[in-house]
Design a protein that fits this description.
Length: about 300
């Protein structure tokens, strides 16, 4: 018997699951995620914690390979790492030591959901490697709990587990929170990153969070009345200005894109700007740094 800490377990509650000896390795891929606006809620139960808001998954991916090993080790982009979020997932799911190798295509700490993507891809790969028999929501709930307890995020995992332009309607982990999707065609995304914003510092500042939550709750109500990509961009821009989170260069970049005919806003939470539109977005953002070009992807996690 393999004893698994269940995705919906709390405290010492465990789920016992029969398993078979699986192959020597498994790999999963998870998209990055950009949030345009949000409102956060923390509860004593990490599975009830989360954020409402809206954002999209994008083609900057996290690929995690897990393999049986003599001792547990986590490698991020070729370098050994403590990786507390992924380590929590390993401690929760792996019945024996594993080597975890994650390759991140996104910049860490810039609002692209890197920690959530790493944790979620790790959880999916472990579920497959050890034949744990967990559902998608159960697997993703482990990654969500890891993010909440580590203070690295509240809403990325449930959106990454869904894929597309996702509205997070009710707080909580996958299986508890409520999401919907806005249907959109293939859409290019451009971004410029100036630097990280410590997510934990923002989430712990009560005065900042009140301003964020008031603006985020209004935006969620409005996007549900008119769920379109254009409305998402408009509300994201408004949220950026209302919360005062954007740096002066980010405001300049947003206005430059708009002057060129595109739509832009700040990535939450990172000192970064994203834009949707045509080549005019690329041309406008080039004045503010190296431009990342990707697209909104319409899928969540995938097993190789």
């Amino acid at each position: 018997m393999i004893e698994i800490r269940g995705a919906h377990a709390s405290g010492s509650e465990l789920i016992s699951q029969g398993g078979r000896k699986a192959a020597g390795s498994a790999r999963a891929t998870v998209p990055g995620h950009v949030t345009g606006f949000f409102a956060a809620r923390r509860e004593e139960d990490p599975l009830a914690s989360g954020s409402i808001g809206c954002g999209f998954t994008l083609g900057l991916l996290a690929r995690t390979t897990v393999s049986r090993a003599d001792s547990t080790q986590i490698i991020i982009n070729g370098q050994p790492s403590e990786a507390p979020v992924s380590m929590y997932v390993v401690d929760s799911l792996a019945p024996s030591p594993v080597r975890v190798e994650t390759e991140l295509e996104m910049i860490m700490g810039a609002g692209f959901g890197a920690s959530g993507a790493g944790a979620l891809s790790c959880a999916y790969a472990l579920n497959h490697l050890f034949d744990l028999g967990m559902t998608s929501n159960q697997v993703a709930s482990v990654a969500h709990r890891a993010e909440v307890l580590s203070g690295t995020g509240l809403g990325d995992v449930i959106a990454q587990n869904t894929g597309g332009l996702v509205i997070r309607i009710a707080h909580g982990a996958p299986g508890k929170g409520v999401v919907d999707r806005i249907p959109i065609p293939r859409t290019k995304v451009y971004a410029v990153v100036r630097g990280p914003i410590p997510t934990g510092d923002v989430l712990r500042d009560a005065s900042v969070m009140k301003r964020i939550n008031d603006a985020g709750e209004r935006a969620v109500k409005e996007i549900l009345r008119r769920p379109t990509l254009g409305e998402f961009m408009r509300l994201s821009r408004r949220f950026t200005y209302e919360t005062g989170l954007a740096s002066s260069w980010a405001i300049d970049a947003i206005e430059a894109v708009e002057s060129a005919g595109g739509m832009a806003s700040m990535i939450m939470l990172g000192d970064s700007v994203f834009a949707v539109g045509g080549d005019e977005c690329m041309e406008a953002l080039q004045h503010f740094g190296n431009v990342i070009e990707t697209e909104i992807v319409q899928r969540g996690p995938m097993l190789d």
